[in-house]
Amino acid sequence: MRWQVGTFGVVLALALAETSLLPAIVGDGLRPSLVLITTSVWVALRGSEGLLWVFVGGFVLDLTSNLPVGLMSLSLLLGNMVASILDRAPIPSPTVRASAWVALVTVVSYGLNMGGLAISGLDVDVVYAMTNVILPLLVLNPALAIVAHGALNQVNLRQRRSQAGRTIAL
Fold it and tell me: What are phi and psi of 69, to 5 degrees?
């Protein structure tokens, strides 16, 4: 239970940093998708168990952004589900696998966000979004996923060891 409270705190901090701190630092420049990267790497490591944190992170982003409520959480969930379905490629390196996972979630999530904005009646410049947001994030997000994978893999291993220590053999 303690690690879940800590995880919620980390996801909340990342969402707030992504929506408040990074825009103040970078301005209108390219910003990494901290919640997408972290939660997607966690799903790549832990499977469907990580989808709860994808939803929590997306929901916090929904509450702190000016997008229609539910769009971020839905697009992140669907992006990770698509990645899990397509995760059949024989990629031997877990780090490269997580990076490819994040790239796929980036494309699906941002594509769904553009579609959701268009359905909401907002004007979406698809060419601008592709060339100035999605394509650059296809370099930035997977690169940062390599760093996130290193850190989250250590957390995952410690958590697995802790859980194994609590298992009672009958």
Answer: -60, 130
| Cα-based angle 48, 54, 55 (whole degrees, multiple of 5) | 105
Alpha helices in 65-134 (DSSP H): 71-86, 94-119, 126-129
Q: Note whether residue 80 is domain-resident.
A: yes
**Does any domain span residue 74?**
yes
Question: Is residue 36 within 8 Å of residue 141, measured between CB atoms?
Answer: yes
Residue 113 inside a domain? The answer is yes
pTM of the predicted protein model = 0.91
Q: Please tell me the distance from the alpha carbon of residue 91 to that of residue 88, in angstroms, as a whole number.
A: 8
pLDDT in tens, 72-119: 999 999 999 999 988 877 888 999 999 999 999 999 999 999 999 999
Domain hosting 6: range is 2-160
Report the number of distinct structural domains present in the chain.
Answer: 1
